[in-house]
Amino acid sequence: MRVLGIETSCDETGVAVYDGELGLLAHAVYSQVEIHAEYGGVVPELASRDHVRKTLPLIRQVLDEAGLAPNGIDGVAFTAGPGLIGALLVGAALGRSLAWAWGVPAVGVHHMEGHLLAPLIEDPAPDFPFVALLVSGGHTQLVDVAGIGRYRILGDSLDDAAGEAFDKTAKILGLPYPGGPELARLAERGDPLRFRFPRPMTDRPGLEFSFSGLKTFALNTLHRELPIAADPMQTRADIARAFEEAVVDTMVIKCRRALRETGHRRLILAGGVSANRRLRERMDTAIVAEGGETFYPRPTFCTDNGAMIAFAGWQRLRAGQSEPLAFRPRARWPLEELPPV
């Protein structure tokens, strides 16, 4: 079965074709970073309009790269949520319409399930069960994964997601949009010993996250230190390093705790923040030291992309799940509501 995947949940247009026997045949992503950089964040209406312009040409491009005509597609998967409702509507309406015109089934995919399953595209893929850390601009979740669609949320963010905290702290430091990667680059030049930020909610039981206080801590540190700094840019780099260290340490502590509580040995990390180099290095060291294994998608598939939607859609379409013509995109959609495969 060959599945066309369409991702339009936020500000990236992603399209891919996944073949159940041959694997990923082609994929492409168009980023709207330049459009939203002027505003310092994603403008939903502009995101929707750009998806309208870019999605169909990107589908043509991917089909050409895969050497396929429309009659070579056996199913269509589109992101049905969670995300920006206008952006979701573009991909969902186009994907469902193409499936109807081509006479093939369609399925709406949960965006975070796409991220969660992205490491399974790689070789070797982790076996079930495992613990997943889904860490992105909108989510920071620990999930006990018994199988596809068999998810139990172990812990969630009580306020800002890690990626959101990265972006907001980057803005505090005067860094350009998108801020998360810029903060990570600046942190490479920072002194890890100059400042120490708190590791929120690690001194109590539980697997919940809270990162908004770190953002405030960074702001207060900047206001205190910048007026007396001999080298303002180095001070910003030192604050960025302290912030990144605190976020990374917090996630490592929570992941180790989750593996101990579930008894699982495998941990996967997925979502945009999982591409962070320091997070991967620290997590590998900590988990391997306890006899566990870590798995990640390739960096290209950490951020939003069509490949993860095509793969997740293939899993559900081959199990006989599909959408009626009356599809329903959802801005909010709890992961635990998904039916098992």
Automatic annotation (TrEMBL):
What biological processes does GO assign it?
A: tRNA threonylcarbamoyladenosine modification
Provide the cofactor note recorded for this chain's UniProt entry. Answer: Binds 1 Fe(2+) ion per subunit.
- Enumerate the spans annotated as Gcp-like domain: 24-311
Positions binding Fe cation in this chain are H111, H115, D304
Judged by the first EC level, this protein's enzyme class is transferase
* Annotated compartments: Cytoplasm
**Record bears the keyword Hydrolase:** yes
Which keywords accompany this UniProt record? Acyltransferase, Cytoplasm, Hydrolase, Iron, Metal-binding, Transferase, tRNA processing
Please provide one cellular component term from the Gene Ontology annotations of this protein.
Answer: cytoplasm
Where substrate binds, per the record, is at L134, V135, S136, G137, G138, D167, G180, N276
Q: What is this protein called?
A: tRNA N6-adenosine threonylcarbamoyltransferase
Organism of derivation: Thiocystis violascens (strain ATCC 17096 / DSM 198 / 6111)
Gene name of the encoded protein: tsaD
